[in-house]
Design a protein that fits this description.
Layout lengths: L1 E5 L10 H9 L2 H12 L5 H10 L6 H8 L8 H10 L2 E10 H11 L3 E10 L2 E7 L7 H13 L3 E6 L5 H4 L4 E4 L4 H6 L2 E2 L13
Parallel strand pairs: 1-2, 1-5, 2-3, 5-6, 6-7
Antiparallel strand pairs: 3-4
Helix pairs in contact: 1-2, 2-3
């Protein structure tokens, strides 16, 4: 058995979920600025996530869920998952984003599992709080290490774009920087040259 782990925002989907929510709620620029700092490794991921989620306080939860489930997939997303499955991979998504998005696209893409965070809701609106297993910059590496210990894969592929993906790159046999920040490209064994996820199948 082989294991493939994908980041979600800006990797499987061509969007940052929290930025799309923020735009719809009128706090787009503040959230984008904070996301950019975190993804470039210039601000602690945990602190940044709390700050960004708090800016969404009061947003209609139904509207937020709808946005999460209508994000645009990157070209080749379905084909890369199917291709990896045919090569004997379990395909998992690890995201500092939100279950409303990753859970929906897990079903749509046929992923084997998704790990992400939960936006808290009270009275039909977001409370501004968030919790879950992927709150910190090193969370993806921790979960990947647990999966490797449990599944004992003979080969691990990791794909991501941001600074918080570098930890899982270090645990992978092949790491692909896709649509990535400079800091992430430097840490990867392969840098994707296109925005078509099918290119990843050529790296194996």
């Amino acid at each position: 058995m082989k294991l493939a782990v994908f980041d979600f925002d800006s990797t499987l989907v061509n969007a940052e979920t929290i930025e799309e929510l923020a735009k719809a709620y009128g706090v787009g620029q503040e959230v984008t600025n904070a996301t950019d700092l975190a993804m470039a490794g210039k601000e602690d991921f945990y602190t940044s996530l709390l700050k960004r989620a708090n800016l969404l306080k009061g947003m209609d939860a139904h509207k937020a869920q709808e946005i999460c489930q209508n994000l645009p997939l990157h070209s080749g997303a379905l084909e890369v998952v199917q291709g990896l499955h045919s090569l004997g991979y379990k395909v998992v998504c690890l995201s500092g984003g939100f279950k409303w998005a990753t859970g929906h696209f897990k079903e749509k893409l046929g992923l084997d599992a998704d790990f992400s965070n939960t936006l808290h809701v009270n009275g039909g609106v977001l409370t501004g709080q968030v919790s879950g297993p992927l709150m910190r910059g090193d969370s993806k590496a921790e979960i990947l290490a647990s999966l490797q210990s449990l599944l004992k894969p003979e080969h691990t592929l990791a794909v991501g774009d941001g600074a918080n993906d570098i930890g899982m790159f270090k645990l992978a046999d092949v790491s692909v920087a896709f649509n990535a920040k400079e800091i992430t490209k430097k840490a990867a064994s392969v840098v994707a040259q296109t925005l078509d996820l099918r290119e990843i199948l050529e790296c194996l």
